[in-house]
Design brief:
65% helix, mainly alpha, 208 residues, two-stranded antiparallel sheet
Length: 208
């Protein structure tokens, strides 16, 4: 639905700002996931019941491409594109981390260096040895990382739908023509169903 850019009431503008913050956080989690674990393999369930091992970065790329999603935050999108280029050259996870550790972009350094130097004990550094080995520490295994990937992808999808919902509510509050109002209400129903589905996967309670 093509909608004009209308100045919304203050309380709705504040909701939109909140949605933007949610999207930026979700995108940051994608960046962190790729930088730390992009080359790791996890189990991915196909459309049927088949389960295959797939690299995390390929899983993320496939899901975002399927939904035609690009990252809203310019620096995160810049990282995403550069990561795709570096990863396509067959670099290991450590080589990818080293590449970004030596970036000359000061703004990129502010984002990436804290991630690179942050101690992350959840997942074993000896991934190849632990791929088929369960551990006493439940977060230190492939099932946990598999869930983390799903949550990162679904979290970004959810936040984008949340923003779209708030944008449509903004236009609805401004009193559109009857035909536009019907289109907006129809879109809200469709988006609401998708949000509920993702919310269930993420354990989010969506208020009525």
């Amino acid at each position: 639905v093509e909608l004009p850019d209308i100045q919304a009431p203050r309380h709705i503008r504040e909701e939109l700002k909140s949605a933007e913050d949610g999207i930026e956080i979700a995108e940051y989690k994608i960046v962190k996931l790729l930088l730390n674990h992009g080359c790791y393999e996890v189990f991915v369930k196909n459309d049927g019941e088949d389960v295959a091992r797939q690299r995390i970065d390929q899983w993320v790329f496939d899901e975002l491409q399927k939904e035609e999603i690009s990252l809203n935050t310019p620096l995160y999108e810049q990282f995403y594109e550069e990561y795709a280029l570096v990863a396509s050259q067959g670099f290991s996870q450590e080589e990818i981390r080293q590449h970004f550790a030596h970036t000359s972009d000061p703004e990129m350094q502010k984002i990436l260096l804290p991630i690179l130097f942050e101690e992350e004990p959840e997942y074993s550094q000896q991934w190849a040895k632990r791929f088929d080995v369960s551990t006493n520490y439940t977060k230190n295994n492939i099932e946990s990382l598999n869930t983390e990937v799903e949550n990162c992808i679904n979290g970004l999808k959810y936040r984008l739908l949340e923003k779209k919902t708030e944008c449509l509510n903004r236009h609805l509050a401004c009193g559109p023509a009857a035909d536009k109002e019907r289109d907006i209400l129809h879109s809200l129903v469709e988006i609401g169903a998708k949000r509920c589905e993702l919310g269930t996967l993420l354990g989010i309670v969506i208020p009525k």
